[in-house]
Amino acid sequence: MTARMAPATDARTAPNGSGTVFDIGYQKYTGVREGRGRARRAVFKDGVRGALGLGRGPRNMVLPWFFIGFMSAIAILMALITGAAKRMASPAEVAQMNLPTHSDFYGFASIILFMFAALVAPELLCRDRREGVISLYFVRPLTALDYVASRWLAFLVVTLATAWLPQIILLLGLSMGDPAPVAYLQKHWLDIPRFLAAGLAMAAYITTIAMLTASFTTRRAYASVFLVGLFAITTPFTAGLAQEIKGPAGQWISMFSLTNIPVHVNDIIFNDVSEITEDAPARKLPKVVLVAWYFAWTVIPGAALWWRYRRLTP
Amino acid sequence: MPTAGEALLAARHLTKHYGNVVALNDVSFNISDGVTGLLGENGAGKSTAIKIFLGLLRPTSGAATVLGEDASRSFSARSRLGYMPEHDCLPSHVSAAEFLTHMAEVSGLPPSAARTRAADTLRHTGLFEERYRSIGGYSTGMKQRVKLSQALVHDPVFVFLDEPTAGLDPLGREEMLALIRKTHREFGISVVLSSHLMADVERTCDRIIVMQGGRVVHSGEVGHFTKETATVFIEVDANRDELVAALQRRGVMVTPDGSGLTIEGPDESVYDHVRDALVDAQSPLRRMAPRRRALTELFERGAV
């Protein structure tokens, strides 16, 4: 091998002698190389930044931050309503009211989270394939599975943050709005692990479905339109059909309402019924069936996503 | 890492089939330090060979080693390789500085080192002033420089350049070839240049490997293929036909060659005949020199 070049030195002195610029030439990199672990973290970090539009210009930030803001606004509104009711009405009247709680939040917010995933998730996979950047990843210390797992995890983290942040706001709002905040927290502390678990279940499901859809096209718009259609059409269609057919068949048809699948899990975690699933015939199926159905709709699309990318590197 | 004098890349009986199509057929060669040209027509097997070395394809049989390690399994070797593809591979919505920093991190560099390397590399490739502009607004020449920069940003031992002058105007092509020469001479990075443009390879490379139909048909130093031949090339400003007639009257066999004439294997007496024929034909002599072979002849004649 040729000996590595000694740096060429070129000094340019300013006319008044006030400063000197040295061109020290090309410098070899002699620092640490962190290999595959660093590569995975870099793809993950880029995925988070891409999903939130960070470093991409103002236009790319509009969509994700609109959804995050909208979800937070719902939580603030729920907290304000509950707080006002508790301060203005007697405890007996409050007990009669159907005030919003943590268990209701994902029922209200699930459709917004689905829209968020439909519009933002494809950005993480489609653009790399359309612009050919993906070929630069796989010649580096990174496999296709590392790449897709890092992207999946990046969007999961963003979706989790989008799901958890309003719940945290709601928790703070509900406890501050209560006449006895400490007593409220002591009574409702179990809501914290519940909304964390329910948020995780919802984020994992939404992320996997959205990423799998994005893996089939290089056009972000196609993936978004398909996902919006999928979520928007299956819910009323299956609800209407289930009402018509009734019985066990109706219950199973109701199971195909894609927006309801993680909300059933939310209901099981909170041991409560959300507004969105209250009339769904599938609610009456055994809990184990609802949980297994949720895992089927999360694990199988995850495996399909893995299979889609597996063939890209040997 | 191989020691001094060892091959950086080695192909041993490399064969690759795509169904019934044989892309590489029992190919063996070594590539060591320097600038090596991989020449061949479309479908010759150049890209398949590069993809195997980059770990993107597994060979059907045979072995490819990169920096002493199995090309399809080694992550450490991949972190010391660079690749500039022929096709578009740049994101349009980020700046060159951000893109290069990201690519350096994906190659394994820590974030602070990646930022420094990105700025340094863009300075060396002439994009320092434009580094914060979105790549989507760059010209074709600037995009080619970004493609080269991302291949160099992690300071690889070896870089593969696939048709690096594709789509460039003459000035851009000159600048790119100068950058490629600089990559080896100043940066100390060895280069494999895959191209079907023989002029690019002739002017840039130390060695060439010529592929045809999935096989290596020639390999060696570029100087060996372009050395002087026993043919004399004569170029005159006027009266070329009269000169041909005057030479033929003296028993010298000449062959028209473009704007000039060639005389195969002349002995010493021929030069006297040429002098006399030039006087007879009143042809002003522009050039008379031993002819050098061009790489194009490898394909035209199939002989070296």
Explain how this protein is built.
The complex is a heterodimer of chains A (314) and B (304). Chain A is an all-alpha fold. Chain A has one domain (40-305). Chain A contains 13 helices and two strands, in the order ββααααααααααααα. Chain A has helices spanning 35-52, 58-88, 91-96, 102-120, 122-130, 134-137, 144-177, 181-188, 191-214, 220-245, 247-255, 261-270, 287-310; strands spanning 10-13, 20-23. Chain A has a two-stranded antiparallel sheet. In chain A, a hairpin with a 6-residue loop joins strand 1 (10-13) and strand 2. Chain A starts with 9 loop residues before the first strand and ends with a helix. The model of chain A is unreliable at 1-9 (pLDDT under 50). Chain B is an alpha/beta fold and 304 residues long. Chain B folds into two domains: 9-225, P-loop containing nucleotide triphosphate hydrolases (Rossmann fold, 3-Layer(aba) Sandwich), CATH 3.40.50.300; 228-300, Alpha-Beta Plaits, CATH 3.30.70.100. Chain B is built from eleven helices and 14 strands. In chain B, a hairpin with a 2-residue loop joins strand 9 and strand 10 (215-221). Chain B is elongated, with a radius of gyration of 24 Å. The two termini of chain B are 34 Å apart. The mean pLDDT of chain B is 87.
